Amino acid sequence: MHPRISVIMPVWNVEPYLRECMDSILDQTMGDLEFICIDDASDDGSPQILKEYAERDPRVKLLHTEHVGAYLARKAGVDVAVGEFVYFMDSDDVLDTNAFKELLEDVDREHLDQIIFSAEVFSDEEDEESFKERRKRFEAYYAIPDAFCGKVMSGPDLMYELERDGHFFVSPPFRLTKLAPFKEREYPFPHGAPFHADEFFTPVSLYFSDRAMIVNRRYYRRRVRPGSISTVLHKEKVHVSSLLNVIFHLCMFKPLQDDMVLRRADIAANMVKLVRAVMRRGAGLDVETMTGLLSDLRVPLAPEVKMFLAACFVPLMFELQRSEARNERKLASRDAEIAKLRTELAAALRDGVSARREIADEMAREVASANAEAKRLADAAARLRRESQEVAGSESYRTGMAVTWPLRWLYRLISPKGGK
Fold first, then answer.
1. End-to-end CA distance of the chain
2. Could you tell me which residues come within 8 angstroms of residue 159 by beta carbon, excluding any fewer than 6 positions away?
3. CB-based contacts of 173: which residues, under 8 Å, 6+ apart?
4. What percentage of the chain has pLDDT greater than the value 70?
């Protein structure tokens, strides 16, 4: 007998979080499940933990992939899964242990193909005060308006209504989905999309769901940590390439192509949102790089789909043109600034040379003046010495000294110093 739920979880270097995550699945109050764990070439202690759990619990099944990324690892899990429903778990997060039991009650009562729920976010690597703002942003993204809760509708209807209201999120771990469509149908994979494959997988899963519903329950606890795929920064080129691949491969998805006549505006709005994400991520890239990424895509599309996609890319084309014009203006302004700086530098050098020359001339004049004064003083001293010698050797000087000797002797005798 097949289990009700196949839990599929790619694992790559999450040793510190893996036990808590696996316990949250294996401790579900609805335990009729298989737990397919795909070790995506981890090089930490994760494989040992997976082996330990597999030996302890027969519901745990291990697969191995050669670091193909989360999306292909999930696909490898789908290929061997046998449950009625499929659930994709992220290996560093936590699921409420009552989630499967309560979700299946809704599924069975409403005969659902997919049920969607919400999440709370947490971080055990940041203090609460610094995490407060990030928590607000994430929880606003995961908010579910009450107006949508409990309504059964087709997957595409639910997706586009949430999209129009600004509350559509793409995270696979926030949904329990019928497995059969993924086993029975082929759908294109966005090769070259390591970061944004969820933007492809989630619309596809909703197109496979005839009856879908969303509930405002925060069963999922999402861990925000440095180094996770969702928090990777400064890889703009890879993000842009991933988003472009998602856009083009969504256009290759036949059910979406067939829906373009009736839902053209909704599909275009979703595509334009993805194009804006390309523009935002590519803001730091030059025009040549962006054009090269677009040129690298060689996707076979029907003419009418190409026209539709071209219309969606009009904002990006205009933005590229504006960006190029801005770059040209910046370049011209920079060249003018460089020329101005060169002129100022040349003038400063000339002024510096002139100033140095004036200073040197002034110092030379002062040295010459000092030398002349020193020579004048030396000449005066020599003249005084000669005159003194002449006076001391004269007959009148010797006579004067003899005549004044008694007076000088008497002065010394009566003076205070002389009398001591």
1. 137
2. 168, 202, 203, 206
3. 87, 88, 89, 90, 93, 95, 119, 220, 222
4. 82
What is d(CA 297, CA 294) in angstroms, rounded to the nearest whole number? 6
User: Residues 116, 218: contact at Cβ < 8 Å?
Assistant: no
Report the greatest alpha carbon distance in the chain: 152
Contact (CB, 8 A) for 200 and 99: no
CA distance 195 to 350: 57
Please answer whether residues 83 and 33 qualify as being in contact, where contact means their C-beta atoms are separated by less than 8 angstroms.
yes
The angle formed by the CA atoms of residues 19, 4 and 211, to the nearest 5 degrees, is 115
Query: For 224, which DSSP code?
Result: P
- Which residues, other chains included, contact 309 with Cβ-Cβ below 8 Å and sequence gap of 6+? 247, 248, 251, 271, 301
The domain 5-231 is placed in CATH, from the list 3.90.550.10, 3.40.50.720, 3.90.230.10, 3.30.470.20, at: 3.90.550.10
Cα angle 314, 238, 134; round to 5: 90
70 Cβ neighbours under 8 A, 6+ residues apart: 10, 12, 40, 90, 197, 229
pTM here is 0.72
Q: Which of 105, 85, 92, 91 lies closest to 29 in space, CA to CA?
A: 105
C-beta separation of 284 from 236 below 8 A: yes
Tens of pLDDT, residue by residue over 65-104, are 998 888 889 989 999 999 999 999 999 999 999 999 999 9
Q: Provide the strand spans (E) within 40-130.
A: 60-64, 85-88, 94-95, 114-122
Question: pLDDT tens digits for 338-383?
Answer: 777 777 777 776 776 676 777 777 777 777 777 777 777 777 777 7
Contact 113, 178 (CB under 8 A): yes
